[in-house]
UniProtKB/TrEMBL annotation:
It comes from Oryza meyeriana var. granulata. Keywords: Signal. Residues 88-325 form the AB hydrolase-1 domain. This is AB hydrolase-1 domain-containing protein. PANTHER family: ALPHA_BETA FOLD FAMILY PROTEIN, PUTATIVE, EXPRESSED-RELATED, HYDROLASE, ALPHA/BETA FOLD FAMILY PROTEIN, EXPRESSED-RELATED.
């Protein structure tokens, strides 16, 4: 059996050889000649990019609570938050979803990072006149946008929820042994992908497009990443109306590849050094984590919650990575965020 490190080294050497000739395919911009047609409302950002959005729930001018939701890896704003109409009507909830840069109908951002995602959220809310304060909720990969909001625009937040948020194994505050052991629990293709995204980002495109070895388990929806509860959720979802996934229509590099580069690259800050944005309990921050999650591991999430005791940490004993999509969990998450129940 060839040691894993030799396989990675082989990919690195091949990457160096082909890097000059193998470059990411230019994105197919929405609304451009030959590109997909624009079907969603969009705003034009200060840097000239367009950001697509979707509004749901109560009318904006009558809503008591305004929540910006941030979609997961390989998804878009068109996958609605599974919140009940009864809760929306009871509390008066306005929901604003948007396509993150490079996803769906939002233009790519070659300079995308954790900070730029927070700035996109702030500018979107300002252009739509949502007011000085709003709530944010990010799911899985969308969690790094929420960490960005907590770091860069805490004064704009009324509250925040992170649901199975991604964890960067190279955050400095993690004890090396804890991070190393958790990393080894990932299935091997995911280990390779995240290692390359962090250590040799220029080779990620080659790694993700080569056919010799399996790459990102999340991108390929490898069955080993799903827990028993996740499989039950997927079976229920198969009986629902199909929603066209437009996440990759502008190309895979500016959507899912850049997501990996941002999430697992070097951040400007360590989330575990963030200060409490609500020292007077005028708002709250929540992390929701499934104990059986095979993509985001519970022991690291517990460590983050220990380092940041002002975060309300909720662990779902039998929940996998997709627990939010079943059994009324979205309503429970929103009640905790908005009214403390």
């Amino acid at each position: 059996m060839v040691p894993r490190i030799l396989i990675v080294l082989l990919v690195v050497l091949l990457g160096l050889a082909f890097q000059a000739i193998l470059q990411p395919t230019p994105p197919k911009l929405w609304g451009s000649p030959g590109g997909p047609p624009v079907t969603s409302p969009r705003i034009k950002l200060r840097d000239g990019r367009y950001l697509a959005y979707r509004e749901d729930g109560a009318q904006k001018d009558k809503a008591k609570y305004k929540i910006i939701t941030v979609h997961a890896f390989d998804a878009t704003k068109d996958f609605p938050l599974p919140v009940s109409k009864e809760l929306v009507d009871e509390l008066g909830i306005y929901l604003l979803a948007f396509d993150r840069a490079g996803y769906g109908e939002s233009d790519p951002n070659p300079k995308r990072d954790v900070k730029s995602e927070a700035m996109d959220i702030e500018e979107l809310t300002d252009q739509l006149e949502l007011g000085q304060k709003f709530y944010v909720l990010g799911v899985s990969m969308g969690g790094y946008s929420i960490w960005g909001c907590l770091q860069y625009i805490p004064n704009r937040l009324a509250g925040a929820a992170l649901v199975v948020p991604i964890i960067n194994y190279w955050w400095p505050s993690f004890p090396a042994e804890l991070s190393r052991q958790a990393f080894k629990r990932l299935i091997v293709p995911e280990q390779r992908t995240l290692w390359i995204a962090h250590n040799i980002p220029s080779l990620l495109y080659l790694w993700m497009t080569q056919k010799w070895l399996p790459s990102s388990a999340a991108a390929m929806q490898h069955p080993e990443i799903f827990s028993k509860h996740d499989m039950e959720v997927l079976q229920k979802m198969m009986a629902m109306p199909v929603i066209e996934n437009k996440s990759r229509q502008q190309g895979i590099y500016e959507s899912i590849h850049r997501d990996l580069l941002v999430a697992f690259g070097n951040w400007e800050f360590d989330p575990m050094n963030i200060t409490n944005p609500f020292p007077q309990n005028e708002g709250s921050v929540h992390i929701w984590q499934g104990y059986e999650d095979r993509l985001v591991l519970v022991e690291l999430q517990r460590y983050i919650a220990k380092k940041l005791p002002w975060i309300h940490y909720h662990e779902v004993p039998e929940g996998g990575h997709m627990f939010m999509l079943a059994d009324g969990w979205t309503d429970k998450i929103l009640r905790a965020l908005l009214v403390g129940e």
